[in-house]
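User: For my dataset I need records formatted as: sequence, then structure tokens, nothing else. Please produce one.
Assistant:
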Amino acid sequence: MKTKSLFLIPILLLSMLINGQSLKSDSETFTRQDSLRGSITPERVWWDLNYYHLDISVHPETKSIEGKNTIQYTILEPYQTLQIDLQPPMKLTKAVQDGEELVVVTEGNAHFISLKKPQTAIGSQEEIEVFYEGKPRVAVRAPWDGGISWKKDSNGNDFIASSCQGLGASVWWPNKDHMYDEVDSMKISVNVPKHLMDVSNGRLESIEEHDDNTTTYNWVVTNPINNYGVNINIGDYVHFSEIYEGEKGPLDMDYYVLRDHLEKAKKQFKDAPKMMKAFEHWFGPYPFYEDSFKLVEVPYLGMEHQSSVTYGNEFKQGYLGRDLSGTGWGLKFDFIIIHESGHEWFANNITYKDAADMWVHEGFTAYSENLFLDYHYGTEASADYVIGTRANIRNDKPIIGTYDVNSEGSSDMYYKGSNLLHTLRQLVNDDEKWRQLLRGLNETFYHQTVTTQEIETYMSEFSGLNLTAFFNQYLRDVRVPTLEYSIKDNELSYRWINIVDGFQMPIEVEINEEKQWLYPTADWKKMEINSTKINIDRNFYIDHKQLN
């Protein structure tokens, strides 16, 4: 995918890569393998990814996969070595270009392919085929500790699915496994035993039946897609569908569930068009009309695979029947349908370049849960919900991780992320402007990979607010800003403590049943009030402490 910019490897990191040294963060040590996975290496940066044709056979009886990936790319600068990623125990068996087999040097998950043909014609398109086979890592606790889930349904049929965010798509297929460069389009051909069906991303182009009692399902994705968003889902599926009249016209919404679950799914999946209505209102048109929208049942909780959102919430409201907010509002919707579909806008349309910025996916999408409630149940309901999720925030480490080593930040990226956005909505103080800001993000960064800094800059410029210290506080610091105040002799004294340099966030309070804004800084401020108490707006994610 053509990105707005490519960030090159810092000189210090490149030196460490060459010398095989580890990088060290406060509590984490990173290896060369982390750097090979997490940075834009010299063997990645010189070529732009255009197209994949992933053509594989899945063998349930041996829990193995074999096949090839045809990769088309554009030369950006002269270079002769190309990095493809594939994780053991999968094996890259050979690489071929123009009919000639190439030399491959393997270092852990990275495979360095020496190209014979001169890669010097900048702008020209080239193609390479990589062949592979093996038994991919079995998912331990999908989707968090992923790989391939090899399960059986209640009728004894194989029920198989992939999930690989964080772990990496290279756990089950060979690719350029870094988020900065999305493939522009792809074809996914999956051969399975004849009694099973594969459901993958995009639209079903054709079905081929073979004499060896197998069937190949050919799926075509016409939009850019990130690697971990590519999936296979194999089972004894039945299908139903509907047409949603959306902002860009008719949208095909397709549903694939196990045969015995059809009636339950028809009832539970009524949340899907409700989701689409709310999210198109807040975020703009669904980003992948050309590829349709699908919900696909899988043998794990669920995942945001692009145009092929996977579902395993047992047809229950909330999160497996629980309300993550503790308010009751979380039982008004099926968590997996709403949350994982929200990722179509934030993860699949707008995609982070580096795993350190995963909050762009998870913070905005956790926030989408309360915007779904806002649309269907009102602003107070949505505020109850997002404020209720604060009980899940640990403030253990910053939301943003370490760059260039495939390192995620704190899991607080979910609900601290959603609460920082809810707080920012109060600062914008205009719900329509806030809606246009969210829609503008999806329009400005449509089908692009981004950095946190690009998101911060856009939100600051659109809102007209200087948000540098705001984002530093909530993304890069673990402290919760605390409003310290006292009231003596009708005089209110107040200031911020536990803050980063320059933090001066205004806050709304109620004094004598009248709302007004305070503008605290790190220094004490004073104002006369005819009251012995103030009520602080609950919508701001802060602490407060009244002094005697």
